[in-house]
Specification:
Layout (H helix, E strand, L loop, with lengths): L7 E6 L17 E8 L2 E2 L7 E2 L7 E4 L5 E5 L2 E7 L3 E5 L4
Antiparallel strand pairs: 1-2, 1-7, 2-5, 3-4, 5-8, 6-7
Length: 93
């Protein structure tokens, strides 16, 4: 498994049922994913260190246009900064 550094988050895309998006508008919609690994955090230019909020196993919506695709043995994954996580889903949404 990957060990993330700083505030980077490794995400596995989760397919959504019934989601139809036209290709030219695809960048307007966030993607849903499962957090696979999380870095410890970052100071973000402040004197105080801030740990990451998302945890491994969280289901999140994230900005895919700001994600970096990496090819791994288990399949494609995305590396994002924590600030590109839009929300954490809790319960059945």
């Amino acid at each position: 498994m990957a060990k993330m550094i700083m505030d980077h988050v490794l995400v596995k895309e989760v397919e959504e049922e019934g989601k139809v998006i036209l290709p030219e508008k695809a960048k307007l919609y966030p993607d849903k994913g499962e957090v696979m690994a999380v870095g410890p955090g970052d100071a973000y230019g402040y004197p105080e260190f801030m740990s990451t909020t998302v945890k491994v196993g969280d289901i999140i919506y994230y900005s895919k246009d700001r994600a970096y695709r990496v090819k791994m043995k288990a399949g494609d994954r995305y590396v994002i900064k924590e600030r590109d996580c839009l929300m954490i889903l809790e319960g059945d949404e």
